[in-house]
Amino acid sequence: MHWDIVTKNLWYLLWGTKSTLQIAGGVLIMGTILGFFLGLLRLSNNPLIGYPTRGVMEVTRGTPLIMQMFFIFFGLPALGLELPKYPAAVLAMTLFAGGNAAEIVRGAIQSLPKGQTEAAKSLGMNYSQTMTFVILPQAVRRMIPPMMGLFTTLIKDTSLAAIIGVFELTRATQETIERTFASFELYLTAAFIYFVICYPLSLLTQQAEKSLHAA
Amino acid sequence: MINVRDVYKSFGIVKALQGVTLFVNKGERVVIIGPSGSGKSTLLRCLNHLETIDSGTIIIDGTPLNDSKVNINKVRAEIGIVFQSFNLFPHLTALRNITLAQEKVRKRTKEEAERIARSLLEKVGIPEKANSYPAQLSGGQQQRVAIARALAMQPKIMLFDEPTSALDPEMIGEVLDVMKQLAREGMTMIVVSHEMGFAREVADRVIFMDEGRIVEEGPPKELFENPRQDRTKAFLSKIL
Amino acid sequence: MGYKLNFSVIWKNLPLLLKGAWLTVEVSTGAILVAILVGIVMGVAKTSRHQFLRFPAAWYVEAFRNTPLLIQIFLIYFGLPQIGLKLSPFMSGFAALVLYTGAYNTEVVRAGLEAIPKGQIEAARSLGFTEIQTIRYVIVPQAFRISLPALSNNFIALLKNSSLVSVIGMVELTFIGNDLTAWTFRAFEVYGAVTVLYLALVFSLSWILAIIERRIRLLI
């Protein structure tokens, strides 16, 4: 075992970690915004809007993220849309996050009792008033725990961007292994860093779920 | 038949039973009343060893319950209990709910168990529901299946823990009718219930419990019309 | 731009792609079966009264759920040989998929066991069932029914996750897609086709699992 290799290269791994968090955080924000749009469109009564939205959600949620990355990075240039690896990975992850966030938004809204919408309508509120003042304030509370879960997933899935060469924690680990050959120690260290970030997040998510059920 | 002597039971700091002594003879029908938290359900659950007691003795049909040598499952098979929330097995049909323990605990054949189950469903008035699942039955029907399930074990004693309090008013009658019929047949019964009409008609003895103790007991007519204790009077004035 | 879409490469290589899809189905089905076993054993351990069972099960779940599957695959395939445990690409990939999915299954089984109302156990015990009989006839059938939808979801997630084992050279749909791209240079068409195949697999699997769920609901 060569744990000294780990200590010597730790700063490099942490630099990768910073990149991992930046990508995951940025994707979470963009994905949530996209998710709200898709989720609300998905609930539309107009089938010309509802069905296509559903299609987009099914594709992003029903195929492996790595395939979406390959398609965007390697496949899209055929249509003249050549993206560098970093934007390609971020675009793929944002679509993936958007599809999943949309499902969270849809689920949260539909989990509210129908009586809430009926009560709001009976008071004379229109669609956007009902959404803004009655439905969304309640639904957003229900979205928080699964959105936190999505964030944990995104941090873990950022590792996939390494496969198309994006610099983040997994890529930093691979590069260090190429120089030092200490794959066991370094992968274990990377796993440990991911764990140190994701485990508290999981605990927080559980906490949020509990307080939601208690309320 | 049932011999409860100086039983204490607490849950943490909550003292549920504080020295309860009670004798019930074979064939006797006892109704226990009292405010919530008075320990009446706890007492019933102790009789079936669903709760273990802290001190005192419970002897059922000559068998002490808190004796480690006693096979508690054998004793339990002799005591039927009907719960407030029915507790039917949701993954089994009404018929299967009634036959399962007969086959696995009483070791009866499938045919015999089914014959008994069908005759009991007849007795509780819903023979046509044999193949329905609990979710397809009304509360009253579920509770009648639960009674049939307990009776199928041919118990010597039947315990009822507020059997009608989770039911809609129009379903209470059908469950009480089944219980009255059982009483007429001479079953030893202990019933926790606030159905005063039932108590008046069926009970040999009514027991009023409060704060983990038996406050007063006597024949229903006497206890309802001339309660001696103030606490009994106060309670009865609220519910009668 | 000089690139012209040409889907004939897909039709010509369709048997190969379909074979890849079938391999993905095989690998996922094998892995989910083992992972369900893992989930049952660890789930029971996690609800155990004994700390020495509960503790390792809890840490197994947390360790494998809070690290990326890709890192687990790399650690098993590249890392373990360094401490003397060399596994083939297939065994490494399979082991990683089983361990990762097993951790999620453990949580499902635990939740299923805990979702059974206390009254069910009391009703069973009051009828004279022993502890073993109560587990066998009352708890397990109900826990299984409660867990089934979540286990199905884990199966579908596993099918998608199995694409990652291609990076260590385990042959399945994604691997064949990469291979085909490498010698036809038709990334758009090939990855498009592979995406459609995954979608078809996920849809058919959801459909089959929904039927199985209904059947089992009727059976037990």
Question: Can you walk me through this structure?
Answer:
The complex is a heterotrimer of chains A (215), B (240) and C (220). Chain A has 215 residues and is mainly alpha-helical. Chain A has a domain of 150 residues: Orthogonal Bundle (MetI-like fold). In chain A, 83% of the residues lie in helices and 0% in strands. In chain A, helix 1 runs antiparallel to helix 2, helix 1 packs antiparallel against helix 6 and helix 5 packs antiparallel against helix 6. Helix content of chain B is 38%, strand content 25%. Chain B has 9 helices and 10 strands. In chain B, the strands form 2 sheets. A 6-stranded mixed β-sheet of chain B has the order 6-7-8-3-9-10, with helices on both faces. In chain B, strands 2-1-4-5 form a 4-stranded antiparallel β-sheet, covered by helices on one side. The model of chain B has no long low-confidence stretch (mean pLDDT 91). Chain C has one domain: MetI-like fold (Orthogonal Bundle). Helices cover 80% and strands 0% of the residues of chain C. Chain C is built from 9 helices and no strands. The mean pLDDT of chain C is 93. Classes of the chains: A mainly alpha (215), B alpha/beta (240), C mainly alpha (220). At the A-C interface, helix 2, helix 3, helix 6, helix 7 and helix 8 of A face helix 3, helix 4, helix 8 and helix 9 of C.
- State the largest interface: A-C, 42 and 42 residues
The quaternary organization reads as: heterotrimer
In the CATH hierarchy, the third-tier topology of the domain at 20-169 in chain A is known as MetI-like fold
Nearest-integer average pLDDT of chain B? 91
Globular, elongated, flat, extended or rod-shaped: what is the shape of chain A? flat
pLDDT under 50 segments of chain B (min length 5)? none
Uncertain parts of chain A: none
Question: How many helices of chain A does DSSP assign?
Answer: 8
* N→C terminal distance of chain A: 51 Å
CATH class of the domain at 20-169 in chain A: Mainly Alpha
User: Any idea what the radius of gyration of chain B is?
Assistant: 18 Å
Beta-strand residue fraction of chain A: under 5%
For the sheet with most strands of chain B, the description reads: 6 strands, mixed
